[in-house]
Amino acid sequence: MSDRIIVKEDSIDNIVPCSNRLLVKVNLVDCTKNGLYVANKDWDSDGSTVTRFGTVVSLPRKFYHRKDGSSFGVEWDTEMEAQIGDVAYFGIMEGTDAPMIICGTDTYFLIDYAEIRVLVRGEEVIPVNGFVLVEEFSDGIKSDFLITDFAMKLNHKKGVVKYVGKRNKSYYNGDESTCDPRVLNVGDVVLLQISAWTALEDDRFYSLEKRLGYTQGRWIIAKLD
Amino acid sequence: MKVTGQRLLLKVEPLEKKTSGGLIIPESAVEGMEKLNLSREGVIEQLGDSDNFEVEVGEKILWNAKMGIKIDDTHVLIAQNAILYVR
To answer: What is the ipTM metric for this complex?
Structure first.
């Protein structure tokens, strides 16, 4: 469960996130017609949250890369693309573990930029950090060696590229085989490395598109005709 | 004490031993709160010798208390990545 910080209502505007984090406003409380505030579906039964997106309200002053000697910097060569007002989708673990700020009835997360998968700016969907949004096919490539149900879930997956952003130029701990594809277009059918596809949202509560998932460009191992 | 690298020396307020309503908080409860390592605010007193900081001396920050090294009752040494926000 995340660390919870309570701040006074007039102080949230002065908060500038640090260490590559973004301040993201999330919706964890709904208001009834009678003015009663209730926790919404994004709370799990153990008191943690499962929310996957929020609105960016503040950016850090500086963006760090690991290659500059910062242990907490991003591990790939990319730029900070987030802008205030963007809707940021992040990994499920961030929705559970990111430090939470509570300000009156509003809730905010301090999200590590490297955990942002995609930004939505108006009508524009912008994958960041080298992520690619892929709609998976139900038929994976099956290995002759994988025979159990559990193992079947670990098969390589095929998918159709739906949204592409800027490629990461390099990975600081990577090698030649772990770079993003030089050319990747919407509509390309791709083969992904094992376990490299994760649903962007719970398909019961999706807000963007159903069956949309993310993978990082480096985990696309082939383009298929 | 001269801090090195991308680390900072913080001056922190000791945990309150009295509520805003005047109730005395027992010593054991204060110690318990310290053990919880809840994020706390502090003022930057010294920066390390790195030139790669996004904060300045005198700024008030919130730091992740799980990541600090207690120097004495009012001073903590932290790495830059323990800073959650500045204001």
So the answer is: 0.78
